[in-house]
TrEMBL record:
It is found in: Cell membrane. One of its GO terms (biological process) is defense response. PANTHER family: PIRIFORMOSPORA INDICA-INSENSITIVE PROTEIN 2 (PTHR48062:SF23), RECEPTOR-LIKE PROTEIN 14 (PTHR48062). It holds the Pfam family LRR_1. Residues 1-25 form the signal peptide. The keyword Repeat applies. It comes from the Eukaryota. It comes from Salvia divinorum (Maria pastora). This is Piriformospora indica-insensitive protein 2. Keywords: Cell membrane, Leucine-rich repeat, Membrane, Repeat, Signal. Belongs to the RLP family. GO terms for cellular component: plasma membrane.
Length: 466
């Protein structure tokens, strides 16, 4: 009995604090009610996604007040609480996590004040039956929904419903890494408030809808990692606010529309791993805000010397490998003061490597391997030492490097390049120096290391013959 008495006091204090707090705060919103229908709709919706065991009225009797639910936010309208944000999926430790084989809950559409709705890692494989995004009822969210997100739901299949085009207040639509497929609806072009459209990592087919070009507030367009094909619509030139355009890893073909040069604020353009052709033309010349240009693995072709590279004043990464580029290495690249990464490997470049490119102040990687470059490399040993294997010049049969003065030992040599003349063999530590560690920057050629080892072994063999 004594024990119980002593326990009761702290419990009482906690209880008192709970119920007196609103009076102290004088915050009118705390005592505001929630309509039964809204509360029931919230409980039913969550229960449908999480599982029958989840008992909202028991666990969270006041979901917009003193028993908040992780992933649920509310707002006041005309003196009543309504649910404005619903986020389902294991984002935090105590997040609402989907049960196995759950379906898409129709109760959701009763929450008419939703501004933000997100499903993360909710519909996963394996499943007993496929689940897709419902094709109707979204009109109930037309006036309210600003952000809609389906991320990492491998078990979510089917298409993007045409009716999404009616969500006229949507500012962010993120549908990434799900199992969605089919064509993208033209109605996407009606979402004129969109700032972000991210459809990466699904299996979408067909063309990039021309209507997208009307989204003139769009800042981010990412449809990378799908199966989109055909040519790009010229309407993309209408995305004048765009900062990031990522179409990498599709089957897009034809010329890059010259209208792209209207995207004056673009800072990232990634068209890599497609089938674009027809040269670079003047398309990229006007993109003065570009920081990252990634066009590798396309049969684009054309002469690299014909581009006014000096105009890309902000460029930090220029990844133009495996594009069937011809011509020599433009000296003007040395004037790009912010350049950190230069990838021109696996093209058809010819001629000398201008020593001037080493003067670019911030450059940490220069990949020129796999071309037909010739002549003598004449960089300082300090440069070879600093760059290590991030200076890639191997695989150019006509290229050799100028060794230091006679009787001096080369402590740093460009990896995989033979010394000019081959007369003095002082191949010491140079090859094994700091360059062993592959660079960790995002844009690097990882597969190269194995190849490079083979090249090195051959080189050592060849040298032993002299
Ligand atoms: C939830 O809990 C309440 C109160 O404990 C109870 O009355 C109700 O029957 C439960 N509902 C379900 C669906 O289990
Ligand atoms: C481009 O960016 C500038 C500076 O951030 C901004 O003032 C301008 O409105 C942007 N242009 C467009 C078309 O959005
Ligand atoms: C080079 O690009 C072509 C397409 O132009 C592609 O088929 C090939 O796989 C690419 N090579 C590498 C090593 O990525
Ligand atoms: C070189 O890099 C440094 C550090 O990242 C940066 O502060 C500086 O602005 C860069 N220089 C140029 C010319 O971009
Ligand atoms: C490389 O260029 C030389 C001429 O400079 C030419 O004879 C040779 O065929 C070229 N090799 C390749 C693989 O294009
Ligand atoms: C290599 O460069 C040095 C200065 O950096 C210069 O003195 C020398 O003449 C050059 N050698 C050749 C063969 O170009």
């Amino acid at each position: 009995m004594k024990k119980i008495e002593s326990l009761r006091f702290p419990v009482l204090v906690v209880w008192l604090l709970h119920f007196t707090a609103p009076c102290i705060g004088q915050d009118e919103s705390v005592g505001a009610p929630m309509k039964i229908a809204e509360q029931e709709a919230l409980y039913d919706t969550i229960q449908d996604f999480v599982g029958k065991w989840w008992n909202g009225s028991d666990l969270y009797p006041d979901p917009c007040g003193w028993t908040p639910i992780q992933g649920v936010s509310c707002d006041l309208y005309d003196g009543f609480w309504y649910v404005t944000d619903l986020s389902i999926g294991p984002v935090h430790d105590n997040s609402l996590t989907c049960g196995q084989d759950v379906d898409f809950s129709p109760n959701l559409f009763a929450l008419r004040h939703l501004k933000s709705l997100s499903f993360f890692n909710c519909f996963v494989t394996p499943r007993r039956r496929p689940v897709s995004i419902p094709a109707s009822n979204w009109e109930f969210f037309a006036g309210s929904l600003e952000s809609l997100e389906f991320r990492l739901n491998s078990g979510l299949t089917g298409t993007v419903p045409e009716i999404f085009g009616g969500l006229r207040n949507l500012q962010s639509l993120v549908i990434t890494e799900n199992g969605l497929m089919g064509k993208l609806p033209e109605s996407i072009g009606n979402l004129v408030e969109l700032r972000r459209l991210n459809l990466a990592g699904n299996s979408f087919t067909g063309r990039v809808p021309g209507s997208i070009g009307g989204l003139n507030r769009l800042l981010i367009l990412d449809v990378s990692g799908n199966l989109l094909s055909g040519t790009l619509p010229v309407t993309l030139g209408g995305l004048t606010a765009l900062l990031k355009l990522d179409l990498n890893g599709n089957q897009l073909e034809g010329e890059i529309p010259k209208e792209i040069r209207n995207l004056k604020n673009l800072s990232l353009l990634d068209l890599s791993d497609n089938r674009f052709s027809g040269g670079l033309g003047e398309t990229i010349q006007g993109l003065n805000s570009l920081q990252e240009l990634v066009l590798s693995n396309n049969p684009i072709g054309g002469d690299i010397m014909s581009i006014g590279w000096q105009n890309l004043r902000c460029i930090t990464a220029l990844e133009l490998s495996n594009m069937s580029l011809t011509g020599g290495i433009p000296e003007s690249l040395a004037n790009l003061k912010s350049l950190r990464f230069l990838g021109l490997n696996d093209n058809k470049l010819t001629g000398d490597i201008p020593s001037k490119i080493a003067t670019s102040p911030n450059v940490t990687s220069i990949y020129l391997h796999g071309n037909n470059l010739t002549g003598k490399l004449n960089f300082s040993e300090a440069f070879y030492g600093r760059m290590g294997r991030r200076f890639g010049a191997w695989g150019n049969p006509g290229l050799c490097y100028q060794q230091p003065e006679e009787f001096e030992t080369a402590s740093h040599a460009p990896f995989g390049v033979k010394p000019c003349g081959l007369q003095v063999i002082k191949y010491g530590a140079g090859l094994r120096d700091p360059a062993w560690t592959m660079p960790s920057s995002g844009l690097d050629v990882f597969g190269v290391s194995r190849l490079a080892l083979v090249v090195e072994a051959l080189l050592v063999l060849a040298l032993q013959h002299f």
